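Protocol step 4 of 6: structure prediction from sequence.
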Amino acid sequence: MVCFLEIVAVLFGIIGLLGCILPVLPGPPLSYAGLVIMYLWANQPAVDGSFEITGRFMLIWLAITVVVTVLDYIVPVFFTKVTGGSKEAVKGSIVGTLIGMVFFPPLGIVVGAFLGAFLGEILLNNKNLGASLLSATGSLLGFIFGTGLKMAASGIMLYYIVKFI
């Protein structure tokens, strides 16, 4: 039974890592679920009677998971706003990401975010080319930064899942 659960935990970790790139999957929460499985069912006591995975470790990773997940929604908006982008740029970036994900994965996600923000500014806000490109670049950088944070957290959680096997 433990071997099966270890496989399930690793799968959660891998799917969590994929979820960092695919917006339809909650990456870090899935990776954390893999850690929870390891903590609850595969946590074996060491020779000295202590457990390899502690409650403190799990609380720290829960906090990291929550912070990274929340930041993933805030960072792109922040980067877009810093570069002069509007709500339309943010909405366009989200729509572009979804369209890119469906029709041109995986590169379409990044290109879609950029083009969506750009078109949102040009078409809906009547901004000039330079301002629209700057807003789109901010949106893209925010998306990349947020994705990088999620991937780092999920990658480290996957490392620990495998380590604890």
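Step 5 (inspection) to follow. The chain has a mean pLDDT of 90.
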